[in-house]
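Chain X:
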Amino acid sequence: MRINIGLKVFFGSLVIVFLNIFYVVVVYKLSDLNNIAHILKKQDMVQQAFLQIGRLNDGRKISRIFYENLKKPVYSEAFQNTSRNIASILDTMAVQLDSVELLDSAVSQGGDQSLTTEISKVTDNIITINRQYAAGFTQIVAIDSAAASVLSARTKETLARTLDDCDSFFIGNLNKAKQMIDEQTKSRIKDIESRINNAKRITIIILICISVFAALYTLIYSSAITRSLRKLRESASYIGKGNFYFDPSGYPRDEIGDLAAAFFDMAVDLKRTQEELIKSKRLAAIGEVVASVNHEINNPLMIISGNAQFLEMSMQEYPAEIKERVRTILEETERISQVTRKLREIKNPVVEDYTSSGEQMINLDRSTQET
């Protein structure tokens, strides 16, 4: 399978991008600090509401004392208005605590949900006590408005003790709720610190992984490229020295592999060009030798041939044996003349073994033929 260098670099970058995305997702899932921040904000609102209820309850208690001593309606109205304000704040707090429970369930490593449930129960108790407190005071006001009797006085005393108990329970539950919220806030802060520390650890681990992967990928990939380029450089050096053997195998199937294939084609072309150049030089050398041979041999050969012909014509009365020797001279001179003509007609020198010892010679008949 062919994979280009650009594609390899893209794959390496893609892996690094995926690691970064994984890091962001993990940290986001681990932190979930937005929900915890909303929980802390709502808990602070509930805490402030409890403090406000405590101040209102102190004012309500003062209104009750003034009413019991002065029996003025203004203090009764102040008590009732304060009770209604407290009831309204408690209803708002109940809604806030319900939303805190929902956020708790959305946070995987959230704070102590049982503590949140316990705070809601304490708040419900405060709401119930507040209603009893307001109802008891309303009964006292009703008794004061009616005709006094011994039975009414006893009922009023019982209601007064009930109001004292309600006030005591109200303050106790109020302090308990505030203490529980303080504990939960501390727990939330510790949870945030733990999440931040976990996020830091994961950040360090993932950054180390990204760095190690990038370093190893760069080292391995650059080593592979450098090794291939060094091999190409050595091959180019061998080709430059006249060694045209080049093995294109063992290279990666990418642009470097294409370059190796181009080197192989170049080596083949250079070898063929060198062979053709050697052949042309050989032909030129043979041509020069043939010209010299023709000049040095043909001139005396013509003289020998001419004298032999003259002797042949002048030896009519000579013995046949002598005439035969003259004809042999003419035939051999003609043979030498044919050899020189073939030398001039050499087109593609064909070398063959001449002796068993390894000596070679040019086959003139095959060398004059077209290839």
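Chain Y:
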Amino acid sequence: MRYYIVVGEASGDLHASRLMEALKKVDPDADFRYFGGDNMKAEGGTCVKHYKELAYMGFVPVLLHLRTILKNMSFCKKDIVEWKPNVVILVDYPGFNLNIAKFVHAKTGIPVYYYISPKIWAWKEWRIKTIKRDVKEMFSILPFEVSFYEKKHHYPIHYVGNPTAQEVAEFRNGYDQSYESFCQEYQLDAYKPVIALLAGSRKQEIKDNLPVMIEAASRFEDYQMVLAGAPSISDSYYQKWIKGTNVKLVRNRTYPLLMHSTVALVTSGTATLETALFDVPQVVCYETPLPKLVRFAFRHVIHVKFISLVNLVADRKVVPEMLADQFTVDGIASELRKILPGHPERDKMLAGYLDMHHRLGNQIAPEQAAGIMYDLLQAYKLGAGLPHHISDKSQDQDNENPIGQEYKDPPYENNIDSSTPMNDYSSSDRDSFPKE
């Protein structure tokens, strides 16, 4: 079968590549065409646009590149129509992808599958109307999303497991480097335990969080501070913040670092989940502008109780979240002290990690998703009694643009929902909500 996949950032490229690998196992005739990246290219198929041509973050970059964004959107729609896939698979990146879903649903008979849900449970909950209308099947990697979609909004979805849990488990099972060897490799002190600093993967995050994290961790003189360097950040940028401190930088080795860390200070995002899966007690740190206003927003506007995935999955406070008016050196240091070895809060947190891990389950997400997708598509083919890439109903709905004819996109100013803010066409919700 033919699979058209759309991703808009590096993490989506990684998740989609593993989904492609799994789809090839259940469908030997799988043919892929995609907006993707290097990981997807390694799995084969045809890459028609690299995600680096799509991702713009923030209102101003989106405004400056709006014409390019809309051209890419127009090209994607025309390419889908011309290629006639059996399914369109969208991976996160909701500002762009929900527009594609609307078009595919309205103009073609091609089913739309969404792998990795937009974070509408945090904000922009109004998007549920679009999802229910345009997305035939939703595949979730966070267990609490099942209740949100199915109980609150009566929209059945598939929870397929969490890929991060799988990745960490595979790494831990195959890793055997000793602490002494790790310290020797990175010129660390083998006689001091490690406080890991995971300050995020964007310059603004690092600028906002790292100085306070360093100041708090510096109070523990019996420990050494080791910073996990992100691939996209240069050494020179890190030096702005760690020069003159005792912080050691370890690049592209976050998992080995967590294997050998005693505690961690972590900027909210996927890193909080990874740290928990390595059983490293942590304090979650996230500096925000206008802290009192942000605290008000969490009480009255933002629809979640927590910002860290650990607490969201566990549905209770497992790790402390130091954000808004609680983001202070004294506050972070106080919470860090509570989770050092020998303190009862440490054991309590580790027990909470076990509960979180149990809720995530043991499914292998891409394989689970691929199996369900293939079975659904087979049933769709057999049940429809129509050509695999088209339905007569969709042609009747819009005789001006039947899928078999050349598609002409409307002018740029009409190519976007008037209800959709321009900054929705930046990177995914992972970049607007404190990162997964």
